[in-house]
Each structure stands twice: as C-alpha cells, then as structure tokens.
Amino acid sequence: MGPPGAGKGTQGARLAEAMGIPKFATGDLLRDAVQRGTALGLQAKAVMEAGHLVSDDLILGVVREELAKPEASQGVIFDGVVRTIPQAEGVERLLAERGRRMDAVLFFDVSDKEILARLEQRRVLEHRADDDPAAVATRLQAYREQTAPVLAWYEARGGVRRVPAAGSLDDIAERVRRALDR
Ligand code: AMP
Q1: Among 64, 122, 161, 177, the one annotated catalytic
Q2: N or C: which end of the chain has fewer CB within 10 A?
Q3: For the whole prediction, is pTM greater than 0.85?
Q4: Which residues are CB-neighbours of 106 under 8 A, at least 6 positions away?
Q5: What would the mean pLDDT of 120-128 be, rounded to a whole number?
Q6: Is 136 in the pocket of ligand 1 (CB under 6 A)?
Q7: How much is the average pLDDT of 66-88?
Q8: Averaged pLDDT score across all residues of the chain
C-alpha cells in the first residue's frame, strides 16, 4: 500500500521476481482492459482517467478471478489493492474462502513533494492520462480519504510494515526485504 507514485509497482515487480510468485496489480489489469475495450475496461475507463477509484464490487470481482488462477496457488503480491475498507473486508473473505490469508501488509511511505515530482516524471515518460495534474489531485484525495484509513484497519489486525520509500531502488528493495524478514 501507499500513495500513487510511492513505488509499489516497481518494488512489487522486483519482489515478485525474487520470490517467484506473481504480482497482481489491479491498475495494470484495468489499464489493459481499457486498452482492449473489454466490458470491464468500458466500465472503468472514465472513472480511472478522472483519478477516482473504481467500484469495490468490480475490484473484488477481479480479485476473486485472480485468486482462482493456478499461478496464484503459491501466493500473490497485491499491488494497488486494497484501497478501501470494504475491499479489505472483501479480500479477507475471499482469501478465507480459499483457506488463505494476507501474510504481510507493506506501507510505502513517501512525502507529497516527492510524489508530485515522480508523477510528473511518469506523465512525461508513460503518458498515463491519470498522471495529469487534475487527475493527480483527485487520486491523492482518494488516497487520503479512502485508502489511508485502511492502514489503521490492518494495524488493528496484525500490523503494517512501514518502508521509507525515498532513495535508490536498491536501497528501497533492501528495506522491503528486511520488512519481510527475508
Ligand atoms: P494504479 O495503477 O494502482 O495507480 O491504479 C490506477 C487507477 O486504477 C486508480 O486511480 C483507480 O482508478 C483504478 N484502481 C486500481 N486499483 C484500484 C482499487 N483497488 N480500487 C479502486 N480503483 C482502483
């Protein structure tokens, strides 16, 4: 977990490779659906481009599908999900149905100033519609209002491991490794 631009995608990919398990990023999955023009993509497109969160039902539907895949049998790294308390409750239920649980929750902690600089850089490089300044403001607001409270939810259920997320990619990867006691 962490605000947009905190490095969840980058570090999640490194961790997935190191652990030999898949990374499941709802944002990547939704962007792919938008590009392919699927029913899911059509439902999500406008909401995503404006920087709002897509509905919990939609997200929990894709989480359910993802967890049912054989590739997920040895574990999954979630990136960008969970983002609301109903999602936290829903994911816990979906995992329990499969006799699984969330082993660890990592929080990528980074200042607003650093985030704004990173997202501006990404906008230039990746042309993501939701990295434009108006959508970024909406995404940060969604993060503060809907996602930040989820940290307390997990804190009350076993803890959140904080990863200071400024610095070099290697340094942050090392902090992730330590946070997971690996
Ligand atoms: P991300 O790449 O994780 O920043 O996600 C890009 C966009 O996809 C977000 O701004 C949301 O519109 C949507 N999205 C991704 N994951 C979720 C989620 N778990 N809940 C709601 N919306 C999401």
Answers
A1: 122
A2: C
A3: yes
A4: 1, 2, 160, 161, 162, 163, 176, 179, 180
A5: 88
A6: no
A7: 96
A8: 94
